[in-house]
């Protein structure tokens, strides 16, 4: 049949229903319904005519684009459907199967993450389609539809959907560690300084970002040298332990995630049998994502620019700090210095109240990344951690100032807020496929004259007033 069908009895009331199976479903899907005169007819059809294959336990379904990119794979597919599952507690705590509509891909390691995360296996919709041409399948329990929980589904409070109110960020993080066999990050209840002392050595990691220029990387290298030299000097120096340090002791490491690899255990020979459904050591070996999780759980300070490099901040331990170095948008304006600062994934930071977010100064970023600004941010992060910032962090305080401006715009301009957050079928896609900074700086369809025959409306007088209030310098792009 190759479609989902609800079997029910005539006269049985079903509330109005529709689902959005993926992040870009603007037209809700209404499932086909087949009614039978009575329960006996329904039983006859199921037991004798259909004689289906039963798929046991809980199955969650989503449609996923671009799962070759780990950011999209985790937060446009897996995270939204997990948030949906949380609403059917306690199913989110138990093993479940994942059914996903994904593109054919020979090397998408996100599929292994899906498989381990769910615990009951990973089934592709394309396989189910082929297998169901002449037979029926019945799901024991089926959860379908993730609504507007996707990472790019803009919320009025500019938070990762469900991250705070459903505690979904923490639950997602903890399950990811659990299902990959990695000890959970340290849990801190009230303060970042719990289980730390004032002379603790803090570990900071700068994650390489495709938006960094050669000059940016040189400046960051100088940051590493200066901070590590300071730390090494004081660690090697024979000093009175009561000596008060001017700055926290921080070691800084530059990493490329694609170079973080699991230990190679190919030297251990394991015999397979003809009926092994997968390699016998599958549950016992690590993949590269496990190696990345082990690195993330020990980060005190996480530093990167916008994009995929920021996605993993969700997996940081309680009381960690993430520093968003920003980038210049649009990218082609970088050499002209006529763009504007872009932080992109700040909704992830505001949606994870167990970490603290810091941002490169918004009006300075157009000058490129500078060593002194980064050192100031890293030392500020270290001081915040050791002095003890309160947990949970106020989500609004975890936004950049342009994000805070957006939230205030949403509070005061309800028509604008509805346009950009409700994802209604007739809303122009350009008004939804946007970032807070695009709105703040009136880019593309947010320009006065619009863009490509699309114009997104807002209270511009309010925008100009708020730009002045938050001290955001604006250059027309």
UniProtKB/TrEMBL annotation:
<protein>
    <submittedName>
        <fullName>Uncharacterized protein</fullName>
    </submittedName>
</protein>
